[in-house]
Specification:
5 helices, elongated, about 140 residues
């Protein structure tokens, strides 16, 4: 039995959202791993001397935000949840003797969230139809 085109499109969107959700979970797990478990220094490069940790936080939360925006609509609740996740990660680090909480990390997480919003906006601007259909947004 052949499906009509709207059912096929709907199933493709559901499959794309499932893939994006898997990416979101993978990024969130990587953030938790590196925040709680990983204790080795990251590779040093003179071009980013002193910025390594900040760039890692920004990149991680930028990717997390981008995946989240591909799945859910932009909203204040999503932004609050992302910021709360970043703050929670830092607060939990207080319980680990080898880790330390840092306000600069929270700020870098916030910059990463802003960067994720910017990446999403750029992708929407470049390819409105494809990104809107994946994110479930209709004009």
């Amino acid at each position: 039995m052949l499906r009509n085109s709207s059912e096929t499109k709907k199933s493709r969107i559901q499959l794309a959202r499932a893939g994006l959700a898997a990416g979101l979970i993978a990024v969130a797990c990587a953030i938790v791993f590196f925040a709680m478990v990983h204790n080795e220094p990251f590779p040093y490069h003179p071009a980013i001397d002193g910025w390594n940790d900040i760039l890692l936080h920004m990149g991680a939360f930028g990717a997390l935000t981008f995946f989240a925006l591909m799945i859910w609509r932009r909203s204040l609740r999503l932004t609050v949840a992302l910021v709360a996740f970043g703050v929670l990660i830092e607060l939990i680090q207080i319980a680990f003797p080898a880790r330390q909480a840092d306000v600069m990390d929270v700020a870098a997480n916030g910059l990463g969230i802003a960067f994720g919003y910017a990446m999403f906006a750029a992708m929407r601007w470049l390819s409105c139809d494809k990104i809107d259909s994946l994110a479930g947004m209709r004009k």
